[in-house]
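Record Glycosyltransferase 87 family protein, 504 aa.
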Amino acid sequence: MSFHHVLVSSCRELLTLAPRTPYGTKRDKTFGRGRLLLLVGVPAALLTLGLWTWWSLTQTDIFWKMFDLSVYHNAAESVDDRGQYILYERSFGIWQLPFIYPPFSAYIFVKLLPLGFAGLKWFMTVSSLVSILAVCWASWGMLGYRRSWGRLGAALTTFAVVVWLEPVSWTLIWGQVNLALLAIVLLDLAQPDARWWKGIGVGLAAGFKLTPAIFIVYLVMTRRFKAAVAAVAAFFATVAFGWIVLPNASRTYWTNLSEISGRVDSELSVGTLNNQSIKGMLTRLIDNESVVGVVWLILCAAIVILGLLAAAKASLAGRELLGVVIVGSLSLLVSPISWSHHWVWVIPAFVLLAHMAFTSRRKLWWFATAGFFVFYASWPMKINALGEWDERVPLQPFGLMWLVPRDEDRESHWNVWQFFVGNSYLLAGIVLTVVVSWLILKNTSLTSLEPVEISTPDSGAVEGTPEPVGAAAPAGAASVGSSASSEPDGTDEGAGRKGVGIGG
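=>
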């Protein structure tokens, strides 16, 4: 089937005002031996927390400085008694970096000032860890697993693993907001479509940091217009609130958005290794800003069209988590700056792979899950700016992509091998997004990759007595993501001065 035919047929299928099957009408999956899974998950999560605490206490120069959080905190402190803000004119924090988030986010940190910087570090750490667990819980719910001891055990076990993924580790180290925003977006999209407040979380996240606004487009393309309207209303509510409480900062921000965003490049080069976005790769490859801009726009347009069509089609087929992960990946690929710690969408992606591994009889998925972890994991390494082991630098949780020279324009002199290693997050994201999107749009529905459900009734179910999964289902009925009848639980800046870490 030609590329043109695939796009045309997909657009015809999606561009209709026909009502979609509501998402979140039934939860029909459960885990066999749920209580046993819980007995594994609890000590695994506690062990992870213990190890992380021990590493943090023994490497305080790395783990407890929270350079990004110092930017937010100092920016909030820039308020004088008359409420005049200089948020977008000065640099803040330990490394003197610009504050580039909307005024609404600045106001949130103003309200947290009474905690002091020490208290804010504890608040951000605890809230980020809770957010990781919430994302794991919601992700399993979006795959159709009912609330049960087994699902809690799966969430805790997943939590114990994903904390050691490099984007997660560095989000905790920098004191970044990525995990909290991920939790807000995912918990919102995990709500059944019938909930009137669905979409508000997406709008609030977009008001805090503009990138999540892509999920509003996703809601429109999946014909959840009420949720899209709620998201837009929530976003503009944050903008209006910012104008009320921080009028000067809002005027400066919304009338100079491009210039403010560009301040990052004046402090931290877009071409540094830590920027795993399409624009970052092109900047490292092409020494011409105009050419980079044109090529970047063309590539972004192509991958956004392909990815959003595939995500919408996956959602309409009942694979909500798959669709959401694709859109999350797009937000990372097309953003001008996606530091490695922005890639926290690896958490729901890992849950999706783990689900395939546990429910499939194919060893392929176990290898894929293990390979995914190895690739994105935080490995304790003493790596200097040349990508070489150096006993003089502290032990830091680096990913494999850091094994190449970085900073001080070293990226522009990479050889072919270093190019692929140094752009590995981005290249892996592009390949996976394009391949999965193409398979979805070709209407193969990933049939050859679908698992056979092998779960047994969970004696530890929290709500009701679950039915055996797949007991009466025809062969091949299981899906990659959640089924259309499944219900979930209802309920930035890089390492040059950023990516290098300490002593790099």
